[in-house]
Design goal:
The structure holds 2 protein chains of 2 kinds. Chain A contains no helices and 11 strands. In chain A, strands 2, 4, 5, 6, 9, 10 and 11 form a 7-stranded mixed beta sheet that branches. Chain A is globular and about 45 Å long. The termini of chain A are far apart. Chain B is mainly beta. Helix content of chain B is 0%, strand content 60%. In chain B, the strands form 2 sheets. In chain B, strands 2, 4, 5, 9, 10 and 11 form a 6-stranded mixed beta sheet that branches. In chain B, strands 1-3-8-7-6 form a 5-stranded antiparallel beta sheet, with no helix packed on it. The N and C termini of chain B lie far apart (36 Å). At the A-B interface, strand 5, strand 9 and strand 10 of A face strand 4, strand 5 and strand 9 of B.
């Protein structure tokens, strides 16, 4: 059981470039999240989704976009990368109503914007 | 004031000691999570609580819904328990949008 898989694990971007962080889960979870964690800081919610076709903004959505075309996949798109987006990004999923509510996290994607 | 407050922020102890990390929150919740993050590593879910007490091995988590307080205990602590422990709450009606504490950095010395 793979759980939550994030790619890439590391990436260096130049200012103004764009990229997509991929997140896939194989647990049939409805709820998926993207968080960022800046050095020494707590997790901040970027976007979340409660099911395929439904997405909503979290605390820090500016500069990011998401889509949820399938239950399994929840990619995070960075447009026009800025140094302020240098962070570690975590994808997570859960099924609060049928799966016990336990949270599963991906291993993280470390992004540096230079 | 943050909605989720953890104490202490940093904790250093000797191997074998009994460890307690506290979490207080100010909102009504449907669940509380305890998470573990090793340095430079990923995040692992330790417990999800909505009432009472849970135990996994040397780890025990308790929650008092009336007092809006939870504790994470580690018995017979070991250097491999060194990590950041994060409390997160799911506010009622919040689509499981967790509110995170700042974390407690635990260091267990041999």
């Amino acid at each position: 059981n793979a759980g939550v898989t994030q790619t890439p694990k590391f990436r260096i971007l130049k200012i103004g470039q764009s990229m997509t962080l991929q997140c896939t889960q194989d647990m049939n979870h409805n709820y998926m999240y993207w968080y960022r964690q800046d050095p020494g800081m707590g997790l901040k919610l970027i976007y979340y989704s409660v099911g395929a076709g439904i997405t909503d903004k979290g605390e820090v959505p500016n500069g990011y976009n998401v889509s949820r075309s399938t239950t399994e996949d929840f990619p995070l798109r960075l447009e026009l990368a800025a140094p302020s987006q240098t962070s570690v990004y975590f994808c997570a999923s859960t099924n609060p109503y049928g799966g016990g509510g336990e949270l599963f996290f991906g291993e993280g994607s470390r992004l540096t914007v230079l | 004031k943050n909605e989720v407050e953890q104490s202490p922020q940093n904790l250093t102890a000797q191997e074998g000691e009994f460890i307690t990390i506290n979490c207080s929150y100010s909102v009504g919740i449907s669940a509380l999570h305890w998470l573990q993050q090793h340095p430079g590593g990923g995040i692992v879910s330790l417990f999800m609580l909505s009432s009472g007490k849970k135990k996994h091995g040397r780890l025990i988590a308790t929650i008092n819904i009336q007092e809006k307080h939870s504790s994470l205990h580690i018995t017979a602590s070991h250097p491999r328990d060194s990590a950041v422990y994060i409390c997160a709450v799911a506010p009622v009606g919040g689509a499981q949008k967790l509110v995170f504490g700042q974390g407690t950095r635990l260091t267990i010395n041999p």
